[in-house]
Design brief:
heterodimer, A: about 250 residues, alpha/beta, 6-stranded mixed sheet, 4-stranded antiparallel sheet, about 25% strand, B: about 280 residues, mainly alpha
């Protein structure tokens, strides 16, 4: 396995009008690891994540400068097919947003975008991804129901399955367990740990314990700056910066 | 709760109750008078025959020409306005997402033309007809009513489409959907019941308007007879019958109004049913 980072962010600046949201961000995200971006609310974690798959394009007020290399491709400069580029990444947001269609079609829609139209293959893959997201056994008889009838925890796992169905290399997760009950959260965390051999996972969270449980690498952010980054042992075991120590100690959040 | 909070709460509750029942009472009176007077003079003959003895002024014959004319005109115009309006509303909400200023200018203009009285559309349609050397016809009526209901159609769809949560859009984009897939697969599905309401609202305005069709669709005693022939419409038949000095003819106006009301009722019940059915099987919120 080569050691070059899957994603490397260089001098990334994001501003909205006069407010600077992200300041001079430099991060390397290694392949097949879980990198946790940790920090209090409003520190720019979500914006950072949205830069990675250029969802920032949806917000005209955001000005994005810098470089985000995924493999050897600077995606911020990419003039090429932005839609294909987004398929390299599966997104799991804070709240699940199932598409307004049946459970089955939520996955089939993603498969279709990937170019799979054959019915038998679709069938097989829908089952495969629902199993990967730990959902198949619960809903195998309900595939033709609207996805909104699922519980929130199930919806989030459906969204994960849907994200995996476009065959991404990277999973971006934005506080994916914040709306979930403990058992569903545990499901998601376990799934991430299981998936990391195949994917590069970037997880945004403000939950310290979650970071401790599943992170390989930690990036600590505060008010638009990266304060400290390194392996989980380094950052949690021996934080160098004052702000990191305070956050880990629970003095501010 | 303190004493003043309690009084405030009671006061506003009372205000809301009064306003609601006041409006309901007025509506009930209108509907009652249409039904009461309408049922007296409505007859099988009225529903199945064309007017006898000159344009609506006679006491015999019926309004079949106006019923069919209004239906053809309103369905035609609603369909056309939908075909033009839906893409406009989607364009505003999906493709112009990075151009908020352009969107607000377009919305402002649409709101402005929404407020223009329908007689102005009628006059505009009429001058276009003269320019092209056309005579009053179903086609001219459909085109004029389409123009008249387009702002209503677009803005009511727009209001629904702009409530599609940004999170859902992000989810769909992150899967690699392009903008037309977002528009036609996500926005339309998510907003289906609101879109049906927009269509219904436009249909109601289109079928109920007299001024836009006065110069453009014209009037006739005959059944609708092709796109290029004039057609009779219910609102105009009500207008003519009411302006007659003869009480029997005036009462026939209420029968026409009753028919118009029932058409709108049936269409709205039908589309609501359609929306609900679609809601249950395909759509979720």
């Amino acid at each position: 396995m080569d050691n070059s980072p899957k994603i490397s962010i260089r001098n990334l600046n994001v501003s909205a009008g006069k407010t600077q949201i992200l300041r001079n961000i430099n991060i390397d995200i290694p392949k097949n690891k879980i990198t946790v971006i940790l920090g209090p609310s409003g520190c720019g974690k979500t914006t950072l994540l949205k830069c990675l798959n250029r969802l920032t394009d949806l917000y005209p007020e955001l000005k994005v400068n810098g470089q985000i290399m995924i493999d050897d491709n600077n995606i911020l400069a990419a003039k090429e097919d932005i839609y294909k580029l987004r398929q390299q990444m599966g997104l799991l947001s804070q709240r699940p947003y199932p598409l307004p269609m049946t459970i089955y079609n939520n996955i089939a829609y993603a498969l279709k975008l990937r170019g799979i139209r054959n019915r038998r293959e679709t069938h097989k893959l829908v089952m495969h991804y629902l199993q990967q997201a730990n959902l198949w056994d619960e809903i195998r008889t309900r595939l033709r129901e609207p996805a909104s009838r699922l519980s929130i925890g199930q919806q989030q796992r459906l969204c994960l399955a849907r994200g995996l169905a476009v065959n991404p290399e990277i999973i971006l997760a934005d506080e994916p367990t914040s709306a979930l009950d403990p058992i569903s959260s545990q499901f998601i965390e376990e799934t991430f740990v299981r998936l990391k051999s195949e994917y590069t996972i970037v997880l945004v969270t403000h939950i310290l314990r979650q970071a401790k449980r599943i992170a390989d690498n930690v990036v600590f952010m505060y008010l638009g700056d990266v304060i400290e980054q390194g392996s989980v042992e380094e950052v949690f075991g021996n934080p160098k910066m004052e702000k990191t120590k305070l956050y880990l100690g629970g003095t501010f959040n | 709760m303190t004493r003043s909070q309690k009084i405030e709460e009671k006061f506003f509750k009372l205000l809301m109750i009064l306003a609601t029942y006041f409006i309901l009472a007025i509506l009930a009176v209108i509907i009652y008078s249409i039904f009461e007077k309408g049922f007296k003079s409505i007859s099988w003959e009225m529903l199945t025959q064309v007017p006898h003895g000159g344009y609506y002024y006679g006491k015999s014959g019926g309004i079949l020409n106006a019923i069919l004319g209004s239906l053809a005109l309103a369905f035609g115009a609603t369909l056309l306005a939908f075909v033009i309006g839906m893409p406009v509303a989607l364009y505003l909400n999906v493709f112009l997402i990075r151009h908020k200023k352009v969107i607000s200018v377009i919305r402002f203009l649409l709101d402005l033309v929404w407020g223009i009285p329908s007689i102005v559309y009628g006059a505009f349609g009429f001058s276009l007809m003269i320019f092209f050397g056309l005579q009053t016809s179903l086609l001219a009526g459909i085109l004029t009513v389409t123009l008249f209901i387009l702002p209503i159609m677009i803005r009511s769809m727009d209001e629904i489409l702009c409530t599609v949560p940004i999170g859902l859009q992000e989810a769909a984009y992150s899967l690699g959907s392009n903008k037309s897939e977002i528009a036609f697969k996500i926005f339309t599905r998510q907003s289906i019941s609101g879109i049906i309401t927009a269509v219904l609202l436009s249909f109601g305005r289109g079928i109920g308007d007299a001024a836009a069709v006065l110069f453009t669709a014209g009037y006739t005693d005959h059944l609708p007879n092709g796109l290029l022939e004039p057609v009779a419409t219910l609102p105009l038949s009500i207008f003519f019958q009411l302006s007659s000095p003869v009480p029997e003819v005036q009462n026939r106006a209420y029968a026409s109004a009753l028919v118009l009301t029932l058409i709108i009722l049936i269409v709205s019940l039908f589309s609501r049913g359609l929306g609900k059915r679609y809601h249950k099987t395909k759509i979720n919120f």
